[in-house]
Amino acid sequence: MCFDRICHNTDRKRGSIMKYSAQEVMQYVQEEDVKFIRLAFCDVFGRQKNISIMPQELDRAFAYGIAFDASSVTGFGDEAHSDLLLHPEPETLMLLPWRPEHGKVVRMFSSISYPDGSPFECDTRSLLKKAVEEAGKAGFRFDFGAEQEFYLFNMDENGKATNIPYDEAGYMDMAPDDRGENIRREICLTLEQMGIQPESSHHEEGPGQNEIDFRYSDALTAADNAMTFQNVTRIVAHRNGLIADFSAKPLPRRPGNGFHINISVNTGDASAPLDQVIAGILEKIQDITVFLNPTENSYERFGNNKAPKYISWSAENRSQLIRVPAQVGGTRRAELRSPDPAANPYLAFALIIYAGLEGIRDKRELPEAVDYNLYKADPSILARLGRLPDDLESACQAARASSFVREHVPAAILDIYCGKHADKEARP
Questions:
Q1: Which pTM does this prediction carry?
Q2: Distances in Å between the alpha carbon of 321 and those of 148, 200, 223?
């Protein structure tokens, strides 16, 4: 068997990674000197966690799952109900290229169940799988392309983060002003070694701010890649004596970090109902904002430096919540500009799919385009537009009141985002 494809072989058209069976994974581990297997998952806020197992435990992991104490994972239970099981998914196998050449380390994403085998309701990756399945039954495939922004900050002498940007460069500047060029290159090359294909990278508007964009993928692959990207970026930054900051508004009076989500919908022919999908998202955006923007800091970003504030759409216009970029070959797409990198990509993509499906089902008509620069528009124009929530509490109120959220988000997750457990320590 040729194992080079574990890292290097991808579907170039859609950016998806080759799929592997449990038997292939076990053969790879045995023949390629793999000493540690990381079983990765995330908490309800999308922070990646993992357990490492030894190769001799892999057969048991595939057959029965690996138990872990979930009581210390945000939203996963308490001491009285703490046992959950991780089930590695072989198709997500990736070699971690920054680990030793001898005694290799691999990673697989895992689904989560209770000891009796029933699915764990707060497993957001499984929630996305369900959304993808429902879309497929309705005859639609949603693909996503992610654009994540981040700042690079210097460390102090104790290895702690500072608020001093790594450079003072501006939008698409070049070296030597752009000191992040080599960091972005290392991130992109590391991801490529893992079978993930970045599409482009550049310096953003803020000092020390960077962006790396990815090719379109199916929803689950795109969410997995978004998780992997943040992990790799933090590791590469740290290896270079820097801190990668993905918070929504790291610096006051400077551009915030966006998690722009590009969406396309496909039916296998030319009838893809993107307008109805956009209409569905516009209709539900207030309800789901708390999941796209889950921190107090998220709301400091809205309304300036190309971050939206109003519920509107237009072609190409970056002052809008949703823009439809100029189509140059390929599939028509929509770009949702309000989310920030603190969002859990599995939950975000699932809710976008459900909102789009509702728009299709109800045959929602797309409202009139708002072809104005909303940062400079007359107040009379702005007064006609709906607004995104002004703060986290307002976003929580909208989510609590939403029948759409109650239908698609388990009560336990809603309680964690907006209930008694949603304190500052629990949030990203």
A1: 0.92
A2: 16, 23, 21
